[in-house]
Amino acid sequence: MLKYVALLLLAAVLAQKASAQEQIPVTLYYEALCPDSIKFFTKQLYPTLQRGVAKNIKLELIPYGRASQTRNETAGVWDFTCHHGPNECYANKIQACAISKIEGGRPSPNLGYNKITLAFINCLMDKVVINPFHLPIDDCATQSNVNNRAEIENCANHTDGSDLLAQLGDLTKVLSPKLSFVPTVTFKKTYKKADNDMSQVNFQNVLCSYITDKKAAECQTSGSNVVVNSFITTLVTVSLLASVKHLF
Ligand SMILES: *[C@@H]1O[C@H](CO)[C@@H](O)[C@H](O)[C@H]1NC(C)=O
Ligand SMILES: *[C@@H]1O[C@H](CO)[C@@H](O)[C@H](O)[C@H]1NC(C)=O
Fold it and tell me: Of 1, 104, 188, 195, which is most buried, counting CB atoms within 10 Å of its CB?
Protein backbone atom coordinates (compact mmCIF):
# COMPACT_ATOMS: atom_id res chain seq x y z
CA MET A 1 0.00 0.00 0.00
CA LEU A 2 2.70 2.44 1.10
CA LYS A 3 4.58 1.55 -2.05
CA TYR A 4 1.69 2.78 -4.21
CA VAL A 5 1.23 5.95 -2.21
CA ALA A 6 4.92 6.70 -2.70
CA LEU A 7 4.65 5.97 -6.42
CA LEU A 8 1.60 8.21 -6.76
CA LEU A 9 3.36 11.03 -4.93
CA LEU A 10 6.41 10.61 -7.12
CA ALA A 11 4.24 10.69 -10.25
CA ALA A 12 2.54 13.85 -8.98
CA VAL A 13 5.87 15.59 -8.39
CA LEU A 14 7.19 14.59 -11.81
CA ALA A 15 3.92 15.60 -13.50
CA GLN A 16 4.12 19.01 -11.87
CA LYS A 17 7.66 19.45 -13.15
CA ALA A 18 6.58 18.48 -16.67
CA SER A 19 3.28 20.39 -16.66
CA ALA A 20 2.53 22.78 -19.50
CA GLN A 21 4.35 26.08 -19.10
CA GLU A 22 2.46 29.32 -19.00
CA GLN A 23 3.12 30.86 -22.42
CA ILE A 24 2.38 34.54 -22.98
CA PRO A 25 1.42 35.33 -26.60
CA VAL A 26 3.88 37.94 -27.90
CA THR A 27 3.59 39.28 -31.44
CA LEU A 28 6.34 41.30 -33.11
CA TYR A 29 5.49 43.51 -36.09
CA TYR A 30 8.77 44.58 -37.70
CA GLU A 31 10.81 45.04 -40.89
CA ALA A 32 13.94 43.14 -41.94
CA LEU A 33 16.02 46.25 -42.72
CA CYS A 34 14.60 48.74 -40.20
CA PRO A 35 17.31 49.95 -37.76
CA ASP A 36 14.91 50.08 -34.77
CA SER A 37 13.68 46.56 -35.57
CA ILE A 38 17.26 45.31 -35.81
CA LYS A 39 18.06 46.92 -32.47
CA PHE A 40 15.01 45.41 -30.78
CA PHE A 41 15.57 41.94 -32.23
CA THR A 42 19.29 41.67 -31.51
CA LYS A 43 19.47 43.61 -28.22
CA GLN A 44 16.14 42.81 -26.53
CA LEU A 45 14.21 39.87 -27.97
CA TYR A 46 17.01 37.45 -28.81
CA PRO A 47 19.07 37.92 -25.61
CA THR A 48 15.94 37.58 -23.45
CA LEU A 49 15.05 34.32 -25.18
CA GLN A 50 18.47 32.85 -24.33
CA ARG A 51 17.41 32.88 -20.66
CA GLY A 52 15.02 30.76 -18.57
CA VAL A 53 12.10 33.09 -19.22
CA ALA A 54 12.13 31.85 -22.85
CA LYS A 55 9.83 28.98 -21.80
CA ASN A 56 7.10 31.51 -20.97
CA ILE A 57 6.63 32.99 -24.43
CA LYS A 58 4.50 32.05 -27.41
CA LEU A 59 6.17 34.10 -30.11
CA GLU A 60 4.72 35.23 -33.41
CA LEU A 61 7.04 37.03 -35.84
CA ILE A 62 5.51 39.27 -38.52
CA PRO A 63 8.23 40.75 -40.78
CA TYR A 64 6.14 43.14 -42.86
CA GLY A 65 5.73 46.51 -41.10
CA ARG A 66 4.89 49.43 -43.33
CA ALA A 67 4.84 47.47 -46.56
CA SER A 68 1.83 47.36 -48.86
CA GLN A 69 0.63 44.87 -51.43
CA THR A 70 -1.56 44.70 -54.49
CA ARG A 71 -2.68 41.64 -56.34
CA ASN A 72 -2.05 41.51 -60.09
CA GLU A 73 -4.85 39.14 -61.11
CA THR A 74 -3.70 39.03 -64.75
CA ALA A 75 -0.27 37.71 -63.80
CA GLY A 76 -1.50 35.96 -60.65
CA VAL A 77 1.22 37.57 -58.52
CA TRP A 78 1.55 39.91 -55.57
CA ASP A 79 3.33 43.23 -55.97
CA PHE A 80 4.87 44.59 -52.77
CA THR A 81 6.18 47.99 -51.85
CA CYS A 82 8.39 47.87 -48.76
CA HIS A 83 9.35 50.63 -46.34
CA HIS A 84 13.08 50.27 -47.08
CA GLY A 85 12.74 49.33 -50.74
CA PRO A 86 12.83 46.10 -52.81
CA ASN A 87 15.77 44.64 -50.84
CA GLU A 88 13.60 44.73 -47.76
CA CYS A 89 10.79 42.89 -49.57
CA TYR A 90 13.33 40.18 -50.40
CA ALA A 91 14.70 40.06 -46.83
CA ASN A 92 11.15 39.95 -45.41
CA LYS A 93 10.35 37.04 -47.76
CA ILE A 94 13.47 35.16 -46.66
CA GLN A 95 12.30 35.53 -43.06
CA ALA A 96 8.69 34.59 -43.90
CA CYS A 97 9.99 31.45 -45.65
CA ALA A 98 12.35 30.63 -42.76
CA ILE A 99 9.46 30.92 -40.28
CA SER A 100 7.35 28.57 -42.39
CA LYS A 101 9.96 26.07 -43.62
CA ILE A 102 12.52 25.54 -40.85
CA GLU A 103 11.49 22.31 -39.09
CA GLY A 104 8.07 22.77 -40.69
CA GLY A 105 7.46 25.90 -38.60
CA ARG A 106 7.15 23.78 -35.47
CA PRO A 107 8.26 25.19 -32.12
CA SER A 108 11.23 23.59 -30.35
CA PRO A 109 10.46 21.32 -27.36
CA ASN A 110 9.05 23.23 -24.35
CA LEU A 111 9.28 26.55 -26.20
CA GLY A 112 6.73 28.71 -27.99
CA TYR A 113 8.99 29.30 -31.01
CA ASN A 114 11.60 27.51 -33.11
CA LYS A 115 15.15 28.00 -31.82
CA ILE A 116 16.84 27.52 -35.20
CA THR A 117 14.51 30.00 -36.91
CA LEU A 118 15.07 32.55 -34.17
CA ALA A 119 18.86 32.17 -34.33
CA PHE A 120 18.84 32.39 -38.15
CA ILE A 121 16.70 35.54 -38.22
CA ASN A 122 18.74 37.11 -35.42
CA CYS A 123 21.90 36.47 -37.44
CA LEU A 124 20.35 37.98 -40.60
CA MET A 125 19.22 41.06 -38.68
CA ASP A 126 22.61 41.39 -37.01
CA LYS A 127 24.82 40.89 -40.08
CA VAL A 128 22.85 42.38 -42.99
CA VAL A 129 24.75 45.05 -44.95
CA ILE A 130 22.42 47.73 -46.28
CA ASN A 131 24.68 49.37 -48.85
CA PRO A 132 25.84 47.67 -50.99
CA PHE A 133 23.09 45.25 -50.01
CA HIS A 134 24.24 41.89 -48.72
CA LEU A 135 22.03 39.44 -46.86
CA PRO A 136 24.39 36.77 -45.41
CA ILE A 137 22.01 33.84 -45.94
CA ASP A 138 24.76 31.23 -46.33
CA ASP A 139 26.80 32.34 -43.32
CA CYS A 140 23.75 32.63 -41.10
CA ALA A 141 22.35 29.27 -42.22
CA THR A 142 25.66 27.59 -41.37
CA GLN A 143 26.02 29.41 -38.06
CA SER A 144 22.43 28.59 -37.01
CA ASN A 145 22.37 24.94 -38.20
CA VAL A 146 19.71 25.60 -40.84
CA ASN A 147 19.75 22.50 -43.05
CA ASN A 148 17.27 23.67 -45.72
CA ARG A 149 18.85 26.95 -46.88
CA ALA A 150 18.17 26.19 -50.57
CA GLU A 151 14.49 25.52 -49.86
CA ILE A 152 14.20 28.87 -48.04
CA GLU A 153 15.88 30.82 -50.87
CA ASN A 154 13.80 29.04 -53.44
CA CYS A 155 10.64 29.86 -51.52
CA ALA A 156 11.61 33.56 -51.24
CA ASN A 157 12.18 33.83 -55.01
CA HIS A 158 8.88 32.27 -56.01
CA THR A 159 5.13 32.65 -55.45
CA ASP A 160 5.42 30.60 -52.24
CA GLY A 161 7.35 33.43 -50.58
CA SER A 162 5.03 36.10 -52.00
CA ASP A 163 1.98 34.29 -50.68
CA LEU A 164 3.57 33.95 -47.23
CA LEU A 165 4.49 37.65 -47.19
CA ALA A 166 0.97 38.59 -48.30
CA GLN A 167 -0.41 36.59 -45.35
CA LEU A 168 1.86 38.56 -43.01
CA GLY A 169 0.48 41.71 -44.66
CA ASP A 170 -3.05 40.59 -43.84
CA LEU A 171 -2.05 39.96 -40.21
CA THR A 172 -0.46 43.42 -40.03
CA LYS A 173 -3.49 45.16 -41.52
CA VAL A 174 -5.90 43.80 -38.90
CA LEU A 175 -3.80 45.20 -36.04
CA SER A 176 -5.90 47.66 -34.06
CA PRO A 177 -5.08 50.47 -33.63
CA LYS A 178 -3.20 50.53 -36.94
CA LEU A 179 0.56 50.02 -36.87
CA SER A 180 2.16 53.40 -36.13
CA PHE A 181 5.63 52.49 -34.87
CA VAL A 182 8.05 49.85 -36.17
CA PRO A 183 8.83 47.63 -34.37
CA THR A 184 5.59 47.12 -32.45
CA VAL A 185 5.29 44.42 -29.79
CA THR A 186 1.97 43.24 -28.42
CA PHE A 187 1.37 41.00 -25.42
CA LYS A 188 -1.68 38.71 -25.31
CA LYS A 189 -2.70 40.04 -28.74
CA THR A 190 -3.37 43.49 -27.28
CA TYR A 191 -1.52 46.68 -28.19
CA LYS A 192 -0.53 48.86 -25.24
CA LYS A 193 1.64 51.88 -25.91
CA ALA A 194 3.35 51.67 -22.51
CA ASP A 195 4.28 48.00 -23.08
CA ASN A 196 5.64 48.77 -26.52
CA ASP A 197 7.67 51.77 -25.33
CA MET A 198 9.12 49.85 -22.37
CA SER A 199 9.88 46.80 -24.52
CA GLN A 200 12.28 48.82 -26.66
CA VAL A 201 14.52 49.32 -23.62
CA ASN A 202 13.61 46.38 -21.36
CA PHE A 203 11.56 43.71 -23.10
CA GLN A 204 12.27 41.16 -20.38
CA ASN A 205 10.61 43.31 -17.69
CA VAL A 206 7.40 43.61 -19.69
CA LEU A 207 7.34 39.89 -20.44
CA CYS A 208 7.96 39.10 -16.76
CA SER A 209 5.07 41.39 -15.74
CA TYR A 210 2.65 39.13 -17.66
CA ILE A 211 3.83 35.87 -16.10
CA THR A 212 1.67 34.86 -13.13
CA ASP A 213 2.90 31.34 -12.50
CA LYS A 214 6.33 30.07 -11.44
CA LYS A 215 8.37 33.02 -12.61
CA ALA A 216 11.83 32.31 -14.03
CA ALA A 217 14.79 33.38 -11.88
CA GLU A 218 15.41 36.55 -13.91
CA CYS A 219 11.79 37.62 -13.29
CA GLN A 220 12.12 37.44 -9.50
CA THR A 221 12.80 40.65 -7.63
CA SER A 222 14.98 38.46 -5.45
CA GLY A 223 16.12 35.10 -6.76
CA SER A 224 15.55 33.31 -3.41
CA ASN A 225 12.02 31.94 -4.09
CA VAL A 226 13.13 29.97 -7.10
CA VAL A 227 16.14 28.56 -5.29
CA VAL A 228 14.00 27.49 -2.30
CA ASN A 229 11.29 26.00 -4.54
CA SER A 230 13.68 23.95 -6.61
CA PHE A 231 15.51 22.87 -3.45
CA ILE A 232 12.24 21.59 -1.94
CA THR A 233 11.24 19.83 -5.18
CA THR A 234 14.65 18.16 -5.37
CA LEU A 235 14.45 17.12 -1.72
CA VAL A 236 10.96 15.61 -2.15
CA THR A 237 11.94 13.82 -5.35
CA VAL A 238 15.14 12.42 -3.88
CA SER A 239 13.45 11.19 -0.69
CA LEU A 240 10.57 9.65 -2.67
CA LEU A 241 12.98 7.92 -5.00
CA ALA A 242 14.85 6.61 -1.97
CA SER A 243 11.66 5.28 -0.38
CA VAL A 244 10.45 3.69 -3.62
CA LYS A 245 13.81 1.97 -4.00
CA HIS A 246 13.54 0.56 -0.48
CA LEU A 247 10.02 -0.74 -1.03
CA PHE A 248 10.88 -2.74 -4.14
C1 LIG B 1 0.10 42.62 -64.31
O2 LIG B 1 0.91 41.64 -64.93
C3 LIG B 1 0.90 41.71 -66.36
C4 LIG B 1 1.66 40.49 -66.89
O5 LIG B 1 2.94 40.38 -66.29
C6 LIG B 1 1.50 43.05 -66.79
O7 LIG B 1 1.51 43.14 -68.18
C8 LIG B 1 0.68 44.19 -66.19
O9 LIG B 1 1.29 45.43 -66.47
C10 LIG B 1 0.55 44.03 -64.67
N11 LIG B 1 -0.38 45.00 -64.13
C12 LIG B 1 -0.07 45.87 -63.19
C13 LIG B 1 -1.18 46.77 -62.74
O14 LIG B 1 1.05 45.97 -62.72
C1 LIG C 1 16.78 35.13 -55.38
O2 LIG C 1 16.52 36.49 -55.62
C3 LIG C 1 17.54 37.35 -55.17
C4 LIG C 1 17.06 38.78 -55.24
O5 LIG C 1 16.28 39.02 -56.38
C6 LIG C 1 18.80 37.08 -55.97
O7 LIG C 1 19.85 37.93 -55.57
C8 LIG C 1 19.21 35.63 -55.72
O9 LIG C 1 20.32 35.28 -56.51
C10 LIG C 1 18.08 34.67 -56.02
N11 LIG C 1 18.43 33.35 -55.52
C12 LIG C 1 18.13 32.21 -56.17
C13 LIG C 1 18.54 30.96 -55.52
O14 LIG C 1 17.52 32.21 -57.24
Answer: 195
Whether residue 216 has pLDDT greater than 80: yes
Residue 86 alpha carbon to ligand 1 centre in Å: 17
Top pLDDT among 38 and 17 is at 38
Least confident of 42-46, 92-96, 216-220, 227-231: 227-231
CA distance 132 to 24: 39
| pLDDT of residue 215 exceeding 90 | no
107: number of Cβ within 10 Å: 15
Q: Cα–Cα distance between 93 and 159 in angstroms, integer?
A: 10
Spatial CA neighbour of 84 closest among 66, 69, 97, 70: 66
Is residue 88 in contact with ligand 2, taking CB distance under 6 Å? Answer: no
Look at residues 195, 100, 226 and name the one whose alpha carbon lies nearest to residue 151.
Answer: 100
User: For residues 217 and 226, what is the distance between their CA atoms, to the nearest angstrom?
Assistant: 6
Is 0.70 surpassed by the pTM of this model? yes
How many residues does the structure list for the chain? 248
Ligand 2 site-directed mutation target among 151, 153, 155, most atoms within 8 Å of CB: 153
